[in-house]
């Protein structure tokens, strides 16, 4: 029964909802088992195959027999390994429990629709992965004969279920609601149907909420109630599938020949409108700003133009969380540094604290620690920061072409595969690394805190806050080119940041930042994998924070991110899961990002503890990575971080926060100060930001080809690439690997306009 799995890339999949796989395609004839024993392939490939589904116009009305038996199923995270579960296949619906007896009594652990799931198989290893949109199930079946029988039954049940959802009107209790799709006679009919579908989805969500609140009966005499709950949940799953199928059918029927022309005209209008807005905004800024402001007025100008929200907005945001009715005194009591410190724990999106100009001159930032003396370049904010992007995100039209690419790469690392530009957002990986400093005020506060336990709690809050913007983001950042850089100087927040793409195979990004009394650096290698309907991003690397004043060095790893519903842009959502361990001397903080579960309404939770060298818990931490983070136990816990408000219409603009909107801005004063390798000069990313999708796609191919040409030339000349601003260090990470260390020369060279530095043209 023990089953050792040696393919860590597959096992690490996004099980946050508990499963992923791929959407099936179809067989035009009754399914046949795949040929047995093809032997080993000559070329090394993933060997994953997609279970085909019903093709357009094909029917499959032969009712498959009920099939059941024990299967090895990968255990729910954070548990590892496999355990036996009893699976039952009945007319395309899969349920499972601990035993056949439990399933017969309705005591099931989960259910899914084979017709709506993406199923991938690996016959060589007896593997089956099922991506059920909200869950990913990893199964192992042995021996080979039993595996092939399960595979055959899955094919038949999947085809039959898809046939039912597409054509038939059945008489079974859970499927009587299915009706054949009727032609749409007019646009008015379509609008009415859309309205009805929205109402049905709303009712289903309400029903799910009611079902979640009903406690599970434990007594034997409550079998009827237990059976009702199980059946009700199955009906909800079935209804959701039916509604989704109806919606997809309507969308397919609404496509007309003139749609492409209308879309092109709309994009042109949006581009013109964005250009006019940009010009008007620039004229407004230039007309209203006095470049001779004294220091105090400059601070106010920065405050008015930076991404901020008022105190009333902040406390309004606090009241929106039904579980977090903490008073402001709870937050104020946390700080030992005086009035206003609690407010500084809110990000750039909350009201920034005013600078003490005795410590921060316009050109020099001196740390409160004698060990740091950081010179910040002249302020770059006098012309204001933008508050909106030039153009909204494109409509979700990339799914068909995206599926054609991804279906061939199940379980593979996508970082080496060129993806459609419509899957991207107009920011790069280096800029996303800078976003982790959005709530850098937490580090400022921690550097002043005398209690080491409170310091590590604030570091934990900072680690959690770095994920908050991910909640609204469903697009991937641009992969940096080798040698690409990004700098960010934030006088308003008191830090400067530099990142560089230091390696291409594997892709590694390194960054370094300096603040008032802290240093921050990390290197990240992102492994991106596709599981059918989900994309998983696994970061490899560590984050480091140093407080010279206290002689402390903190390091921690990062959680895994999973994007669900990849082929349904309006319904995409992000989940985080994994263990994050923060180490510093005798203290350790262990954080757990909890996977979303289909059977629970609790989402996006994170909890943890601070333990001393003896392993004794001395602090409890909890919260939601997309809302707030607390120290202590409810109801007396203190809020030490809360996410700021989002910009208006953020959902239309890639879900960007205020800081994200500002990162790719290229102002006239900045253009002459940064090197040509800076991400802001990347043309394909700029075209996407401006809404020119066709131009961005073409330019992306050009930029990537130039990088391949440069690599080929270096190989021919035997001249390996050397990063300009980072070097390999003998200091090792927890895993024993060498680190990339910031050489510290960038800011000095910047003063001379990079005159004596040979910058390789990237674009």
From TrEMBL:
GO terms for molecular function: cholesterol binding; sterol transfer activity. Residues 11-29 have a biased composition (Low complexity). It is found in: Cell membrane; Cytoplasm, Cytosol; Endoplasmic reticulum membrane. Residues 65-161 form the PH domain. Residues 319-329, 351-360 have a biased composition (Basic and acidic residues). One of its GO terms (biological process) is bile acid biosynthetic process. Pfam families: Oxysterol_BP (PF01237). It comes from the Eukaryota. Residues 35-44 have a biased composition (Basic residues). GO terms for cellular component: cytosol; endoplasmic reticulum membrane; nucleus; perinuclear endoplasmic reticulum; plasma membrane. The keyword Phosphoprotein applies. This is Oxysterol-binding protein. It comes from Allacma fusca.
